Fold:
Amino acid sequence: MATIACWSAKGGSGTTVVAIALATMRGRESQDGGALLVDLAGDCPSAMGVPEPNGPGVSDWLAAGAEVPADALRRLEVEVSVDVSLLPLGHARPEGVTDPTRAEQLLEQLALDPRDTVLDLGRIIDPSGAVAGSLLPLATAADQSLLVTRPCFLSLRRALASPVRPTGIVLVTEDGRALGRREVEDILGVPVIAEVPLDSSVARAVDAGTLGMRMPRGLERSLRHAA
Ligand SMILES: Nc1ncnc2c1ncn2[C@@H]1O[C@H](COP(=O)(O)OP(=O)(O)OP(=O)(O)O)[C@@H](O)[C@H]1O
Ligand SMILES: [Mg+2]
Structure:
């Protein structure tokens, strides 16, 4: 089914929050056993309030090569709720896996899965504008490639210089910024598909690790068109 990759050009943009929210919303609406959240950045368990998995994860599968079969992915999953299963990061570094074949195989497996998949790729762009290892094919070949960004010129500049062109932007907005939706769309030439206002109830849910159990209403409302 559909694959949605969430990524940022700068740390702390709100990528993990958006990825968890989209997976929860897709999972709740699913007739096919919820949704799958693939964590390639490592913060999903603590934001969702589940114990840190200490076994192998998706990064180890990516690093392993052909001797580890494709269906081994399924055994790495952790059930987080009735709506969402988590494929945890594991111990390897996805940006260190330079052969793109395995990332392409991961997307093939996810496309065969009857569930929708949301990938949290984290900050994929380094300050030089490069995108390392497995993160590049995952960000470019997912069905939807969503840049999560603040209306921040430094983030937009990095995104513009990167080799990945998103299919849509999730704009995490705050009062008093000079750049608005229109300017962000003009700079990147990509539509803003959702605006998520900074909201203290979201920050509290992340700090308390309750985002997986109880999603703040406003967050769900603002992402309705992106999910
Ligand atoms: N809509 C929001 N309202 C209020 N706070 C938010 C919102 N989205 C994210 N935050 C806060 O901003 C911080 C960064 O969010 P998050 O971890 O989702 O960003 P990230 O892009 O995944 O960061 P990283 O680069 O570290 O992976 C968190 O502390 C979170 O509480
Ligand atoms: Mg994150």
User: Anything to note?
Assistant: DSSP finds ten helices and eight strands in the chain. The chain has a mean pLDDT of 94. The longest helix spans residues 15-29.
